[in-house]
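>> received
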Amino acid sequence: MKKLFVCLCFLLSACAAQSVYADESPFTVSNWQLAVENRNAERYELAYHYYSVALSSARTEPVILRIKSEMEALERTIQAVR
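>> returned
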């Protein structure tokens, strides 16, 4: 019974997370992906630019908070590199 409850909670949380991102515009998602790709390639300034563009078009509060969090982490990385 406990395992069933845990599986059900996991499935419901996965569905809830997908609906948040489904409400975002393709423009936000594509710029966010470009930001992550540039961050992973260590092109931090360009990544910051794409995060800013994604943030400006974000619609939902969870996505706005997530992008802001990633931008803050990127700012710390940029400061450490300098």
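>> Confidence is low (pLDDT under 50) at residues 4-9.
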